[in-house]
Design goal:
The complex is a heterodimer of chains A (about 325) and B (about 500).
Chain A (H helix, E strand, L loop, with lengths): L1 H5 L8 E2 L12 H27 L4 H26 L5 E4 L7 H21 L1 H24 L30 E2 L16 E6 L10 E5 L24 E5 L11 E3 L4 E3 L6 E3 L5 E4 L11 E3 L5 E3 L16
Antiparallel strand pairs in A: 3-4, 4-5, 5-6, 7-8, 8-9, 9-10, 11-12
Helix pairs in contact in A: 2-3
Chain B lengths: L1 H12 L2 H8 L2 E2 L7 H20 L8 E3 L11 E3 H11 L4 H28 L8 H23 L4 H15 L5 H9 L9 H31 L13 E6 H26 L5 H4 L18 H9 L5 E3 L2 E3 L1 H29 L15 H20 L2 H8 L3 H32 L10 E5 L5 E5 L20 E2 L17
Antiparallel strand pairs in B: 1-4, 2-3, 5-6, 7-8
The chains are: A alpha+beta (about 325), B mainly alpha (about 500).
């Protein structure tokens, strides 16, 4: 301690203890010190309380309360100490220019353009080869880094046994049985008028692109068709049922809200509204296209089946979509 | 003892000279300079609570049967990611506190960054020589938003799964490469091959945070090298910094502030429920919930998607889903790019190439302030547009009316905000002495009945600002007789 006080080699005279720059920023340092001390002690109690709360497996609220008291106490104590008792100055520090001198700059430039430029002039071929080689290396490393991440989107509607995955096809086929997510087969009498059900082709329960919303619009005989306004296809309805892809054409959320009174399907994500009576044409909101309609049929046993598949890609738009 | 160890280290690393300069570093005082500290400390909390969570979270979409202590879920088939998140909330002691504090810290982190950025913008702190640091900060904002999204997508609950579905379709909307990007990111057509959670996990806990840590180091390193900006005031010039020293004053205040930020975060983590995934259930691609909102920092993107008209472009055998691509890719791209290049735009426009270490009052740069207010208005407008359905319910208005209102409000409000702010700035500049803290005038009457006024004593906190700033003293003369009772030294008021 005393060694420090003898050292007088600094560029400035030592500050006297009563220098106003070193004084607390409060008229009552004793009170502030007491307050800080009390706060820190309360903080300590809080932390001990947290250990207790953890030990006895008290509720999350108790854990949070004790921890908060601990941190508040320590925080208030430390800030009061720093803000009101420690030297506030004001102290000043000079700024220095960031930029180098002109000489340093030109030396730096000369190093790059001089030495480097000389090498470029002498060994232009090597430099060119190096650049191309580096480029090929980057490409070579990027190919497995990117290509292995997933399958390619298929160009055509039928991938022909390749590993490409098609956005155009679903697992719905002519005659696919309609089943619930639990695999239960959907019969013609399962829904009353106004009823809705999410269905899948049998064997693909829960599959995202295959999800279809089945709505009963009328009580009709199995061979009757419910008249839809265009672009809806009346022929594709059966026994008063209509089925649409449940994937919103906006961003692919399940269009899960059916309002029977207005005959509307509403997507809860961004409030696109589709007209059930008119081929699920969008009436409002950001969705650009109707929900694709699935052709329906009822077989002799009363089982609901797909009478074909979608005539277009389901879900949101993408570049390759015609 | 301390002397000895310092010498031992200095013999090997030579820290004394630089160390002294560092301890003497001056921090100007202003409340708005703490906003960045909030961001820094929430990030510290994020790292701490995040490490705790990684010990219990299982990043896997693999289906298992839930057997934990949350009764309504028992026996259901859920993914390991979902089951482990429910497990660390209910079966790991303090797990729920840590998880919720982590989520709150992320929301606070991005909020603090946004407010800190507004402060830097409106006071012109981004000007030469600090353009780099403005860009580094903007990059951290972008990465913070990305990592927030990745993080709340991990539990594989119904709400987060819907968010991932939307992110997939947004990627898909990019012309030419969209399908390839989304196929490579997710491993196929949605929902992909079940690898999205492990992929998001490694991005969320390693890659993005590592980049943020690197940028944070650069941010603070530049701050030390270029020194702080300061508001104009007594003794403050473009060539100095006036304030309190790093050690011990600033260290004490900022450490205390770390505790305060932690107190708030853990308080919220324990008392304010956030993302109760056991109520939402496991994500299934055919299920959806009503009135679902993303975390606040994603709201502006969601709102832009909602109010966009359905302008799909179809032609030449291709489709460009402009109704998605414009609001979800082009719009945020423009916002972030404008932010990044703003310092250069302004310097070209004002032809100002000087160094600036003194801050502007917002009103003194009416055009910049108006531009900033305009941008904030735009972002807030689209943010509120992301809750059209909630507003329609709350105000008992038809949803369509609310949507149409926002379709006009979002483009028009920023224009109004620009001119309004510009006008207000000019009005404020015309008023003398506005916004300065005034000292009260004490009126007294003498025995003869003559009135006179005297300025009141400066407030205790202001007293030191009345002093002439001095360099940090090399050492303090502790041989002074008053040292015996340090607390007894009377404060000197000028």
């Amino acid at each position: 301690m005393s060694d420090h006080n003898i050292r007088l080699d600094g560029p400035l005279p030592p500050a006297a203890l009563d220098d106003p720059h070193l004084q607390p920023a409060t008229g009552h340092p004793e009170r502030m010190e007491a307050l800080a001390a009390v706060a820190i002690v309360i903080g300590m109690i809080g932390f001990v309380g947290f250990i207790w709360a953890y030990w006895v497996d008290a509720s999350t609220q108790w854990q949070a309360a004790t921890l908060t008291v601990g941190m508040l106490g320590l925080g208030i104590g430390t800030i009061s100490w720093g803000k009101y008792l420690m030297p506030q100055g004001p102290f000043v520090e000079e700024r220095h220019d960031f930029h180098s001198t002109d000489d340093e700059r030109s030396a730096f430039n000369a190093a790059i353009t001089g030495r480097g430029g000389l090498e470029v002039k002498r060994r232009g071929l090597l430099l060119g080869l190096f650049a191309v080689g580096g480029g090929i290396m980057t490409l070579a490393l990027l190919i497995p880094g990117v290509r292995s991440l997933g399958p390619k989107p298929a160009k055509s509607e039928d991938p022909h046994g390749s590993t490409d995955v098609s956005l155009f096809t679903t697992n719905w086929r002519q005659g696919s049985k309609l089943v619930t997510v639990g695999g239960r087969q959907v019969m013609v009498d399962d829904l009353d008028v106004g009823g809705v059900l999410t269905v899948f082709p049998q064997g693909y329960e829960g599959s995202s692109p295959d999800q279809v919303i089945l709505i009963r619009l009328a009580q009709q005989a199995p061979n009757e068709h419910y008249t839809l306004e265009p672009p809806g296809n009346t022929e594709w309805t059966a026994a008063g049922y209509v089925a649409y892809s449940k994937l919103c054409t906006h961003l692919g959320c399940p269009v899960g809200l059916y309002q029977e009174k207005t005959q509307q399907l509403v997507c809860p994500c961004h409030q696109s509204i589709f007209n059930v009576n008119a081929g699920a044409i969008p009436q409002f909101g950001p969705a650009p296209r109707p929900l694709p309609q699935l052709p329906l049929a009822v077989d002799a046993t009363g089982q609901m089946r797909a009478n074909g598949t979608f005539d277009q890609a389901v879900g949101p738009g993408f570049w390759e979509r015609p | 003892m301390i002397d000895k160890s310092l010498n031992w280290v200095d013999d090997r690393l030579g820290i004394a000279k630089g160390g002294r300069t560092f301890l003497d570093k001056i921090f100007p005082d202003h409340w708005s300079f703490m906003l960045g500290e909030i961001a820094l400390y929430s990030f510290v909390i994020l790292l701490g609570t995040g490490v705790f969570l990684t010990l219990y979270f299982v990043p896997s979409g693999h289906e298992i049967v839930y057997h934990g202590s949350y009764v309504p879920l028992r026996g259901q088939r859920v993914s390991e990611a979902y089951a482990s998140t429910v497990g660390l909330s209910f079966d790991v002691r303090s797990g729920l506190l840590m998880r919720q504090a982590h989520h709150w810290a992320a929301d606070i982190f991005l909020g603090a960054i946004a407010v800190h950025m507004a402060r830097v913008f409106f006071t012109g702190a981004f000007r030469k020589p600090r353009e780099f640091n403005w860009i580094v900060g903007t990059l951290m904002l972008i990465l913070g938003i990305v990592n927030g999204f990745l993080g709340y997508s991990l539990p594989d609950d119904l709400v987060s799964g819907t968010g991932i579905r939307i992110a997939y379709s947004i990627t898909e909307s990019i012309p030419l490469v969209g399908t390839y990007l989304s196929f490579f990111l997710f491993g196929g057509n949605y929902p992909g091959s079940g690898i999205i959670i492990p992929r998001f996990y490694v991005l969320h806990v390693l890659i993005v945070p590592a980049i943020i840590v690197g940028l944070l180091a650069a941010h603070l390193g530049l701050l030390v090298k270029q020194k702080h900006t300061q508001f104009p005031g007594k003794g403050k010039t473009e060539h100095n910094v006036v304030g309190s020293p790093m050690f011990p004053t600033f260290i004490a205040k900022t450490t205390g502030f770390l505790f305060m930020a932690s107190a708030v975060t853990f308080g919220l983590g324990g008392f304010a429920q956030i993302n109760p995934i056991w109520q939402f259930g496991q994500y299934e691609p055919y299920q959806i919930s009503y009135a679902v909102q993303p975390d606040w920092y994603m709201g502006w993107l969601d709102g832009a998607l909602r109010i966009m008209p359905s302008w799909e472009w179809v032609g030449w055998g291709h489709t460009i889903p402009l109704e998605v691509f414009l609001p979800a890719v082009v719009f945020p791209g423009l916002v972030f790019n404008i932010l990044i290049v703003w310092p250069f735009i302004e310097s070209i426009y004002t032809k100002d190439t000087n160094y600036h270490n003194l801050l502007d009052r917002p009103r003194d740069r009416p055009k910049r302030t108006a531009a900033g207010a305009s941008m904030l208005t735009l972002l807030f407008a689209v943010f509120f547009a992301s809750s059209t359905d909630v507003m329609a319910n709350f105000f008992q208005l038809p949803l369509l009316d609310v949507l149409w209102f926002f379709r006009f409000f979002v483009p028009l409000a920023p224009i109004v905000a620009y001119f309004l702010t510009y006008k207000i700035c000019n009005e404020m500049r015309a008023a003398e002495g506005i916004g300065k803290r005034k000292r009260a005038l004490v009126v007294s009457r003498s025995a003869e009945g003559e009135y006179s006024t005297v300025k009141s004593e400066p407030r205790p906190g202001d007293a030191h600002e009345e002093l002439e700033a001095i360099p940090v003293p090399t050492y303090i003369d502790t041989t002074h007789p008053d040292l015996a009772t340090a607390a007894g030294v009377r404060r000197v008021i000028r």
